[in-house]
Batch of 2 targets.
Target 1
Amino acid sequence: MNKLSLHFHGLPFSLTLQHMASPIPPFLFSLFIFMHLGFSVQGITRHYPFNVQLHNVTRLCKTKTILTVNGKFPGAPVVAREGDRVVINVTNHVSNNVSFHWHGIRQLLSGWADGPAYVTQCPIQTGQSYAYNFSITGQRGTLWWHAHISWLRATLHGPLIILPFKNTSYPFPKPHKEVPIIFGEWFNADTEAVISQALKTGGGPNVSDAYTINGLPGPLYNCSANETFKLRVRPGKTYLLRMINAALNDELFFKISNHTFTVVEADAVYVKPFETDIIVIAPGQTTNVLLKTKTNPSATTFYMAASPYFTGQGTFDNTTVAGILQYKLPHKTSSTTPLKIQPLPPFNATSVVANFSSKFRSLASPANVPQTVDKKFLFTVGLGSNPCPKNKTCQGPNGSMFAASMNNVSFTNPTTVALLQTYFSGRNNGVYTTDFPASPLVPFNYTGMPPNNTRVSNGTKTVVLPFNTTVEVVLQDTSILGAESHPLHLHGYNFYVVGQGFGNFDPRKDPAKFNLVDPVERNTIGVPSGGWAAIRFRADNPGVWFMHCHFEVHLSWGLKMAWIVLDGELPGQKLPPPPADLPTC
């Protein structure tokens, strides 16, 4: 086994060429360099060191110490090719416990590397290391990595870019350049203090102070003109923008003034291309778009901007982040004309979101969507409340504490062991139960007048699925404490979005309208505000798989559950034992 250390996008990594017993000949060093400039061979293992460390960063004229990977914010890209194995060795140099999730990676037979704390692993404690080891099978496109414990992903996140097999082209014209566009949220306060305070008082957390593009808030915020992302482009060229919404709690609208996009991919799955001048992207989602620059632009600079989509109750960060699209024009200086931002949709423009979402179709036709289902589920998703403890004053609804739930079950994370370890060992000892309800125990008019009783139940409840079960889940928003869009993410799987609608799902009429030909395939779906989304998947990946809202505040309040997918009968259908370095609690 031979290693070669390189630097790529500022992130050191090494390669291992498998099945080579002899020393690497000198000519192969050049080959390795070329592979990482756009070529590859199968059988490469890519090693990335992740050192979690503190770093001082100044935004909005305030300097604070944040958690970073290798001192970078946002984190540098992890770049691999379809068919590669990736080994990411995380070493924790900070006082916080950490874990990392490789958002959208299928983790076929590698559930130990999925990352959510207390679900597939105990967190990595101070001074400890853990190697996330997984293969990339049948996937290519834009995904991302992020911390998966508490609110640490506010600063611990970065792109995960999967290039196609060598000599495999994109199903669209080759772009002149590829550019990651990472949307984030900046808090002047310590985000761990923000959520800790909210969980103590039972009220809503303080909102962010700014949105960011690639870590920069831009000129519309105080003291931030010099902290503006600029995308420099040439006329008449096509750019592939790899968009990632890493914001903690906000869906976003995005546009570039006087320009349009061609959407070509969602959540690392190709879609039938469509034109749009507005992008809607929820936390957890990724979207690849082609930006064709103008041959003769009317100006040298144009604003790009993002603002929130929000339909819930309470406060939110109703600000706008801006960056600049800057043309490189010969014999022309930058325009001194003040830039103008084309208006973004109103913050509650649900019709714009619905129209945008309806345009997504899988490129493959027919897609590999299950035509029949073995198990059907109806999961309500929404807010609720827990009673205020005795002798305490709480700031939630009517003096209670905010909670969130699926089927009125607010999920409680284990604290001394991870679910996957417990399941694999066969010694449950009451850590979890397998009685998560397949549908609401008390049906009600989900999107109508909310019930007076908003109390949730609490527990660590799971659903057990036999291997290869075909599953349909209808995700139904509720109006309890306000109807709201919820970005639901499923670990370990992609799913097909076979239907969406407003109001209450009608099991007699709505299935007839399902798209079973070319539905979009995703890992994160925005359940419509006051509506529903129906998804289908095949449970062909054994392990314990988290499903949750990707609004971090709702995740903290319990809007989550877990699927346990049993082993199949064949050797390649069984989860291997845990790695020797799996962290302990």
Note: The first helix runs from residue 26 to 35.
Target 2
Amino acid sequence: MGQIMGSMQSNVAEVFSNRRKRKRSTDSTLGQEEQAQLGTTLAKKKKLLTTTQYIYKALFKEEKNSDVAVMVLDKVWHLHKVYLSQSPYFYTMFNGTWKEAQQNFVQITIPDDRINVESLDAVFGSMYSDEIEIDPKDVIPVLATATLFHLDGIIDKCSEVMVDTINAETAIHYYEAACQYGVVGVKKSTFQWFQINLLSIYSKQPNLLRHISIDLMTALTASQDLYVMQTEFSLYTLLRTWMFLRLHPDHDPEDPVQRAEAQRTQDQLVNAGVDTHTPSMDVAQWKYFTSRMEERSFLATPEGQPFVPVFQKLRTQYLTNHYMDLKIIYNDNIIPKEWLYSHIHSHWDALLRIDHGQEDSSPQQLDDDQFFENCMRCGRLLTEPGYQKWRWTGFNFGMDLILIMDSRRLNIRRHHRHEHERVLSLQTKRKFMIRTTVTSINAQRQPVFTQTSEICSLSLEKNEEVPLMVLDPKLVHPLLISINLLVVMPPNQSFKEVVPHSEEPTSATSFSIPISEIGATCERPLTPSSADDSAVYIGDSEASTPTSPSPRRRITWPREIAVSSEADALFGDMAC
């Protein structure tokens, strides 16, 4: 009996167990079907248009229930006043006393050539949607259209796109548009990009360089934050090329035919014994400036007058520190020779003061504006980490300064070797002022992180080395290094405010006067009354100072281009 009861219990349990299994299986099967149906339902819901999408499609694209037609650039849009009124331009039109408020057809005249049908369609469509897609190649027309209709949200979106896409191809157009439409953020970002890349990029892309306006180039040349690669003479050669390209819009240095012709001309000049000190692609500009028969500088001519403000901002005092630089500049005859003579006089005066140990020869008690206005600008690109050291060429008032990058530290050293003592300052200590800026850039050469030091005054003994900056960990290579340096008190440069229109030599400057007769009428005794008199400054006691020389008789330098008859024939055949 017990066995029967046990067997019955076992069968009952098995029956119920099988029922539960079938129920679970059925439930599981139903669950999968329901999930499939649910998934299908969700997929269908995703395909439904949102309210915004429906409004955009039905009211803007299909133009349903339009209550106003807007005609611009010969195209008509059938739109809705309630949506257009999001723009202050249209809100005033439809809600004021203007005649358009009572009309259902509006014609708008566009005074801006940057605005086109595509940008109008994009901006009108944005009023029916909560987003707008802006392609970088269309951003300026969209910005112009948004500015016309006072749509700040779209203007801000355009600004973001422009700042993110600044490069060599877009920077000039972006800067001009930012100035025209008052987009301060874009103007600031593009100007900063120019400061970093002007000499690094545009010196290699002349057909982009020529489109930089005179106003923009003037501002860049004046900037203390301009990354001058390598020295001020590099900036001079860039300005010479830029000026030539703007004067000759048909000249294309990148054209293969013109490049081949320039190379042939360069070879002929070399065979004729003429050293142009310039690459073949620049031989046309070399000919244009050096073959002028006028004695006056190019800036004094009608063609050169528009470029005077740019060269006035050039730190021309640092163009006379190297023999070859000075020779090229003199032969170009772009800059007035009076400027060069004044700089040479100031340099010699500073050297004599340094040699005499005058305290006022070293820069001191200068405010930031005076320092930035007169400092020398030098720059260098470091592509990879590691130990590196370099100097910038030119006679630096008897100081041989070397920059050293060692790991994450940038140092400066006053280098002094005994075999060079004749051209180096023998003063135990030399004072100077310096500021250091290091910038990390991305693939578009946009600044990622910048570290700048304060303006500091240093006093270095011979062969002394001191740190300038410990690099922040955020600075990664490639690195751009910019140095602002001032080693002597800046002279008065008010003479650059005037460009002489005539530089013809006068009889007083003729070399026919024997050198023994020069100064024959001087009242100063031939023999100093004391040893101290031999080092005094000679000049007008009241009207002249060592840093502001009085007018003097000008010495005419001979032009140093030895041109043969064969070269003369080349000049006649060459075309710019």
Note: The mean pLDDT is 79.
